[in-house]
Write a structure and sequence with these properties.
The longest helix has 21 residues. The chain has four helices and five strands. It has one domain: Ribosomal protein L22/L17 (Ribosomal Protein L22, Chain A, Alpha-Beta Complex), CATH 3.90.470. The termini are far apart. Helix content is 40%, strand content 29%. It comes from Acetatifactor muris. Belongs to the universal ribosomal protein uL22 family.
Length: 129
């Protein structure tokens, strides 16, 4: 059992919280595997370079990730007072979301299952020194 008063426990938990600016997109209609192709291309790059890469990337997920990076950069400027020129993509990952199951009718009364996968995409920025 946890020691201390509830407010003390919350204070300790919030002290360990990650203060880096981030943005998260939940239930994106793209599979994790396809989202990771885009995320691998921008990991570790500065924000302007990442946005330029995503602008000309033909994949569907690149439009979603581009909006996420712009949102995280706006969070960094407005909430944390960071300079946009010094920001870079510290972390970006996609986690598996719920799968929508659909039925596709086939010959002789059979039915094949179609799985429409979703993902939760997270982008975390940080400031270079």
């Amino acid at each position: 059992m946890a020691k201390g008063h509830r407010s003390q426990i919350k204070r300790e938990r919030n002290a360990q919280k990650d203060t880096r600016p981030s943005a998260k997109l939940s239930y994106a209609r793209v599979s994790v595997q396809k989202a990771c192709f885009v995320l691998d291309a921008i990991r570790g790059k500065d924000v302007e370079t990442a946005l330029a890469i995503l602008e000309y990337n033909p994949r569907y997920a690149s439009g979603l990730v581009k909006k996420l990076i712009e949102s995280a950069a706006a969070n960094a400027e407005n909430n944390n007072g960071m300079n946009r020129d010094n920001l870079y993509v510290a972390e970006c990952y996609a986690n598996k979301g719920p799968t929508m199951k659909r039925i596709h009718p086939r010959a002789q009364g059979r039915a094949y299952r179609i799985e429409k996968r979703t993902s939760h995409i997270t982008v975390v920025l940080d400031e270079r020194e």
